[in-house]
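# nightly structure sweep
# worker-07 picked up a monomer target from the shared queue
# config: single-sequence mode, recycle default, output format = structure tokens
# input follows
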Amino acid sequence: MGASPLPFSTFLAVFLLLCFTTLSFFPETAHALTRHYKFDIKLQNVTRLCHTKSLVSVNGQFPGPRIVAREGDRLLIKVVNHVQNNISIHWHGIRQLRSGWADGPAYITQCPIQTGQSYVYNFTIVGQRGTLWWHAHISWLRSTVYGPIIILPKHGVPYPFVKPHKEVPIIFGEWFNADTEAIISQALQTGGGPNVSDAYTINGLPGPLYNCSANDTFKLKVKPGKTYLLRLINAALNDELFFSIANHTLTVVDMDAVYVKPFETETLLIAPGQTSNVLLKTKLHYPNAKFFMTARPYVTGQGTFDNSTVAGILEYEIPSHSSVSTGKLPLFKPILPALNDTSFVTNFTNKLRSLASAQFPANVPQKVDKQFFFTVGLGTIPCLSNRTCQGPTNRTMFQASINNVSFVMPTTALLQSHYSGQSNSVYSPNFPIYPKNPFNYTGTPPNNTMVSNGTKLVVLSFNTSVELILQDTSILGAESHPLHLHGFNFYVVGQGFGNYDKNKDPAKFNLIDPVERNTVGVPSGGWVAIRFLADNPGVWFMHCHLEVHTSWGLKMAWIVLDGNLPNQKLLPPPSDLPKC
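# output follows
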């Protein structure tokens, strides 16, 4: 006998009961969505500074499209490459728990997407909310291929600060009249420093302080007596930036998509790769004025740099009864710190503290399983084939290194090699955990500035608690280095100037509420101490986010092995993973 079908009303009741039961057992999925995006990598003619060039873009937009999601959402982003350049996209700051195949750095977690090919980046946002960003992660293509990632809290979860009237992404970039691929190619051939940008930009616009750019100005239009959430992103290639709005105070509430204890400031420092959410509380009454919002570089190195200022304009909505013309209003300018104001930078970074509340705790590793000491800085390699070069001397080329190892990019992806167990000819797991030859790192530099090279990695067991000291060096001049670690957030437990002292400095570490980040500035002529838990299996890139230093080799990678449990293992590679 065949079974009799259930009446529709009974079926519906059973179905709804099952849905309710499922959501009760899995509350995380109750409102989580799968969001689909498509990125067409294509050439687009763009004009800035009265100069038109064909640049690599996403969907013809510069900057690229906004990704919006909620904590817990799954993202499926199909990237189709229509240009001659190979491409890969990195979702900067996304933890990528067990989904390292979607992290994006070319030849680290994937082979690049070649012309005419596509790849679907598939990942879930776990335990994160705030502002992050995406960008190309191959050569210097991120100069034009970048955009914001806005992660809203879960439904029903409020911000731990006043609800803003409006949220506004503000993304800083650099504009080059020339082709950035040609710029870095020439620099690597000659051994010299690359040409610098022609302008900084806010949301792709240089603003009125540059020639031919009055109409290419970002304007933030606000109402009196309101609170605005500004989502700041530094997508510049090679410059840390000061940012300020004339006659207004900003309240910092978030760094790198992690809530911080709120504090007020008139000026922020934001390094390449870093993000910050700040609250702007507008004046209670119409001010009869306009206000510049400006950014310019913080400079510690000895090389050339783009010494210019980008400006947007903060404009108040004119009251309906007013006859004032905006063109006649006075325009106030902020006073930014001096270009080399390391004292301001130190004071600003010392104010950063995790919220460390019951709802948003700071899970700082209290014990350390493995300690590492990495020197970071510039160096040299000899000119090739008796050529004359444009490095520090005419017989040398600029190079950069970590623990005197300048990283050589492989020609196949490290994660694929690791996962398949075919690593012998691709990389070696013997990256030095301390400098081979210690010296006075911030004192008189040694006579020998040559660095070694290789594709060397550090291997960590799952759930290893790591403490890493990053020490700047004065070889070819002390300089600030914004270091970005893929696949993890870390806690900045200490920092200082001079050489790190392992006997005295740990006593001053903050293990209660240190700021949690994914990109940290190693102080010029100083050190920074970070801690993280290696709870994410895969291969994870770490590099300076000054693109010129990455090109010179200031980068390395970590392998985190699988844990014993099924949810501690890297997921298998997707079927459409690009091939080299």
